Amino acid sequence: MLASLTRAARRRVLAFAAVLLAVCGVLLWWLAPFGPATPSGSITFSTGVPSGVYQRYGELLKQAMAKELPDVSITLKNSEGSQQNLARVASGEADFTVATADAVAQYIRDRRPGFERLRGCARLYDDYVQLIVRKGSPVTQVSDLRGLRVGVGQDGSGVRLIADRVLAAAGLTPDRDVRAEPVGIDTMPALLERGELDAFFWSGGLPTQAVQSLAERFPVRLVPMDEDLVDALRGVGASTRHYRSAVIPADAYAKAQDGQAVETLAVANLMVTTVEADPDLVEGFTRSVIGSRDSIGSRVHPAQLVDLRTAVYTEPLTLHDGARRYYRSVKP
Question: How many CB atoms lie within 10 A of CB 78?
Answer without folding.
Answer: 15
